[in-house]
Design a protein that fits this description.
44% of the residues lie in helices and 5% in strands. It is mainly alpha-helical. Among the domains are: 144 residues, Serine Threonine Protein Phosphatase 5, Tetratricopeptide repeat, CATH 1.25.40.820; 34 residues, no CATH class. The chain has a two-stranded antiparallel ribbon. Strand 1 and strand 2 form a beta hairpin. The protein is elongated, with a radius of gyration of 40 Å. Putative RNA polymerase II subunit B1 C-terminal domain (CTD) phosphatase involved in RNA polymerase II transcription regulation.
């Protein structure tokens, strides 16, 4: 019987000595056996990591907002082979031990009334629609009992969304998901640094100043040459029939504005396809008499 540690290596010589054994079939069988063994080893490793993470943090008075550097390094290293389902198992195991589901929190998880199935949770002030009021959410009791507070729930879910969905034996070598995990506080600090490094947007005064400096006619010949060089049509034979066009703004001379006057053709303004109704004729005649 092959050894449980190396089943494929121990049984391969015996299989190779059997008459009628196809080497290709043997290679495929060995490949699948090694893959299954690798999956089992990975699952065993994940279970060991879960047992280690149950004991975090190292200090019973640790602050989950500012955890110890050693605990953070241990958490990130242990979560590399994890999938979201494995992370859910870690939360469940910590809850069974009476701890908060967030691995860097030393506090106990909430204990709600077992007779209540749902709870109404109110968000922060200004979290409602349009930034007014508070957001209301109906949460199952089991979800609330996973954590000690909503802050730890947010920290734990921030880590969960960074884990890779694929198992570790199917991931590509260049897949960085799960390798560079950030805590919620680290993500917020990086976002604030990015906003501070962004240059301020140009003011309206700067934009208007740039528009005043625009001139379409300046350097038109050189610009046309550069454009022709970019298009690849610098050959003289391609210039035939082309006309240099310069766009200028139309200059409108300011003059005095005259008041509108009644024109003779305006007297028939009430005509309908050349026919003037009788009432309209009388009204027009009365208007002319007044004038």
């Amino acid at each position: 019987m092959p050894s449980p540690d190396r089943p494929a290596a121990a049984s391969s010589p015996a299989l190779a000595q059997r008459p009628g054994t196809d080497p290709r079939h043997l290679a495929i069988a060995l490949h699948h056996a090694q893959q299954i063994q690798a999956q089992k080893d990975t699952q065993t490793l994940i279970l060991d990591r879960i047992l280690e993470l149950i004991e975090l943090p190292s200090s019973p008075t640790a602050d989950p907002a500012t955890p110890a550097a050693a605990d953070v390094a241990a958490l990130k290293s242990a979560l590399r082979p994890f999938q979201p389902a494995d992370y859910d198992n870690l939360i469940l195991e910590r809850n069974i031990e009476g701890r908060c589901g967030y691995a860097l929190c030393p506090r106990e998880h909430r204990k709600e009334d077992p007779r209540v199935r749902f709870r109404i949770v109110w968000g922060a002030k200004g979290s409602g629609a349009g930034g007014r009021g508070r957001e209301m959410d109906i949460v199952p009791r089991e979800k609330l009992e996973m954590w000690c507070s909503s802050e730890c729930a947010e920290r734990a879910m921030y880590i969960r969304v960074q884990l890779a969905e694929e198992p570790v034996w199917e991931r590509r070598a260049d897949d960085r998901r799960g390798r560079q995990i950030l805590l919620l506080e680290e993500g917020r600090a990086a976002s604030n640094d990015h906003h501070r490094q962004r240059q301020p947007s140009a003011s309206v005064k700067d934009v208007l100043g740039q528009l005043d400096n625009l001139n379409l006619a300046t350097g038109s010949a050189s610009d046309s040459a550069d454009l022709a060089l970019e298009r690849g049509d610098v050959h003289p034979a391609l210039h035939g029939g082309r006309v240099e066009v310069q766009i200028r703004e139309k200059q409108v001379a300011a003059g005095s504005t005259r008041a509108p006057e009644l024109r003779p053709e305006d007297r028939m303004g009430g005509a309908i396809e050349g026919y003037v109704p009788r009432d309209t004729q009388d009204q027009d005649q009365d208007m002319l008499d007044l004038l």
